[in-house]
Amino acid sequence: MVLQKSPERAVLWGYGPEGAQVTVSLLGLFKRQASLVIVTNGIWQVTLDPVAAGGPYNVTAKVQNDSATLTDVLFGDIWMCGGQSNMCFNMTQIFNATEELSVVAKYPYVRPFMVALNTSGIELMDLIEVEIPWSVPTASVVEEFSAVCWLFGRYMYDTLKYPIGLVESCWGGTPVEVWSSSRALKQCQEVPVVDGPKKNSILWNSMIHPLLNMTIKGALWYQGEANAEYNQDKYNCSFPAMIDDWRMAFHQGSGGQTAPDFPFGFVQLSTYIKTSKDDGFPNIRWHQTADFGFVPNLRMKKTFMAVALDLPDATSPYGTIHPRDKQDVAYRLTLGARAVAYEEENVPFLGPFPKEIASTQMYVNITYDQAVSVTSSKDIFEVCCSDIWAPCGPKSLWLQTPIVGWNLTTIQVSAAVCQSSEVAAVRYAWRDWPCEFKACPVYSASWILPAPPFIINRSSWKGGVWKSY
């Protein structure tokens, strides 16, 4: 297995006879440590001294005449991977699956663990069942494992060169509410659902709560599709509230070892229905950022996001809601992790986002926070026209408008569709399926990072400056 390396301290726990003394020892080539602890309420828990990345070690717990030993234990970074079916989407289902699985054995220090699918009406101390126990990776083990999670771990190992532990706990078709504690849901005035697969906290109880004692480095999340049709309008509260609550709970559960603001990365929704006029996916993409359009932000600190709306898959045999390109998703997550979690300098991880908008009767000039690469488009931008300073929302009348020019950091779109009234708001890529594969009109200068979607109102934009002429 992998335990969390220094500066954090790994937590180990187990069961034993009440009041008994348990000796927990760590033995490696250059290191040994031992702790004595008393079994209380049937459970013992030890916080190891900090251990640098590497190994292998043996860890032994001894009580009276009984002992249990874990062998080949490494220390590195533990990343928790959660969400719904696109996180569960396994390595056999992605593009180039055979090739990707053929290199698994070259990464013996990237080790998977997978929680089995079980529900519970109450918070559990321990997992009901384990699907994949801690394993040295082989093709046959990893083929059932989350592709986004595994690829992220593999790419991070290539950068960090020390062990990575990956913990998958996800379930297809699930809304955020089932992964949230009742504490978190109260923050958003969520009405308790008492029955069925959407019963509040049903997977928090069984598939997250039992993991809280574990010291972790950070978490990855790919979910939101289910909330496009369920409590969609609450997601801008429920998702950030879940992140806050997980952070608090993992910090407390590990006795203060997991950081109280551990890094949290997530995938912004990809695509589903090509011709859809439904606002569900665009609204959730926006709500995934707490309605800022980008992360990290004031509400969602120490988070990072992989934009995925430019990675559609019209011929996916698993349905268009499950695109097979998880390599780019994982790669974009690693950029965010390197910048936010590991504080590596000069790692671009954010696509271009507007910082200033200037509008006239003829044009709207959108100036971005970085250099942009632009392809012409007649319909990716839309404007909302109004003579009054009332905000435009997704249900307002939006008119497609063409890109008419651009330079290093500014894109100019036409305002002519508004005729005698003024441009009151502008939005970008506000569709379920806004462009074809890696062919959105706006990217970073390197063409690697797509611009995230946005909806900006002249009257209420707090994140930048709107000038009218």
Number-wise, the strands total: 24
Mean pLDDT: 96
DSSP helical segment count: 9
* Structural category: alpha/beta
> Could you give the distance between the termini?
62 Å
Shape: elongated
- Rg estimate, integer Å: 24 Å
Relative helix content: 10-25%
Instruction: Extract low-pLDDT stretches.
Output: none
- Strand fraction equals 25-35%
**Biggest sheet: strands, sense, closure?**
11 strands, mixed
Protein name: Sialate O-acetylesterase isoform X2
Pfam families: SASA (PF03629)
Domain Sialate O-acetylesterase: 77-271
GO molecular function, one term: sialate O-acetylesterase activity
Could you characterize what this model shows?
- It is built from 9 helices and 24 strands.
- It has helices spanning 85-88, 97-102, 139-142, 147-160, 182-186, 202-208, 235-253, 280-287, 327-341, and strands at residues 2-4, 11-15, 21-28, 32-38, 43-47, 54-63, 66-83, 110-115, 130-132, 164-170, 218-222, 264-267, 303-306, 354-359, 363-368, 372-374, 381-386, 399-401, 403-406, 410-414, 422-428, 442-444, 454-457, 465-468.
- Strand 14 (354-359) and strand 15 (363-368) form a beta hairpin.
- The longest helix is centred in the middle third of the chain and has 19 residues, at 235-253.
- The radius of gyration is 24 Å and the shape is elongated.
- The model has no long low-confidence stretch (mean pLDDT 96).
- This is Sialate O-acetylesterase isoform X2.
- GO terms for molecular function: sialate O-acetylesterase activity.
- Pfam families: SASA.
- Keywords: Hydrolase.
